[in-house]
Amino acid sequence: MSTPVPKSPGWLDWYAQPSEPAxxxxxxxxxxxCHVFGPQAEFPFAPERKYTPCDAGRExxxxxxxxxxxxxxxxxxxxxxxxxxxxxxxxxxASGGRARGIATVRPDITDAELRRLHEAGVRGVRFNFLKRLxxxxxxxxxxxxxxxxxxxxxxxxLYFESADLPGLESFFASLPTPLxxxxxxxxxxxxPAEGPEFSRFLRFVxxxxxxxxxxxxxxxxxxxxxxxxxxxxxxxxxxxFGRRAVEEFPDRVLWGxxxxxxxxxxxxxxxxLLVDHVPLVATTPEQRHKLLVANPTRLYWPGEGA
Length: 306
Ligand code: 0GY
What we know:
By secondary structure, the chain is of the alpha/beta class.
């Protein structure tokens, strides 16, 4: 066996003992944004990766979900595994139908490989535009991938910085599949949620076949995890953004943990507190049912009803 590659300097490991959430997730809750990392002894990281994480394997993900009350999950291929989807596919296959996958694929992928991914439970690909995570995202290649996956009924998951949306919007609108946007398009939460930047993002959502992940308050927040008045209210500066997305697009919002929270540098979130963020942004039982159960079920297990 090869020697394990050490973690990136300053790497923060996932939170080993998440608290018990005060909010009870409804039965059928789907975590639509989580990853597996390795374990690297079994699934080595990709040579082109920009970071080397700790291990975060499928059993550990399942244990977290059991603790939080999450029923099903969507495992998003992480950039540390490049376009080698083996670890993600292994976790999806092992789930007995309780997981779906989002892959990274190159335009020269064969039809047979695409069919194999579909049969395993993959339902989309991710296009990542963050320069700190990927070297390049050539639009011709991405358009070619989108054309290949559209006939399978898959969608494209988009990860970009909010400042880059104006330059990417027309390309996104040209894609032939539904779109799913990570982390509310990464708004700058020091600006108002009612201001022009987030309004522009929501107009893009409105005009296109777009779903929005109301996820990652811990990554977007500047105020951080400090509890407010002793309550389990963390990341409060992100709340107005999530709430606006949920109120304006109740049928197109999705929730996810982003476990194991790659590349956070100042703190590692308590996943129990992330669950307690949900009722802050989805304030009625109906909104919560759509966000946590009905919407992701429609997108990832269509035909099941929820
Ligand atoms: C996220 C966020 C990040 C990383 C990745 O695939 C990845 O490496 O997604 C990040 O560093 O912001 O969605 O998990």
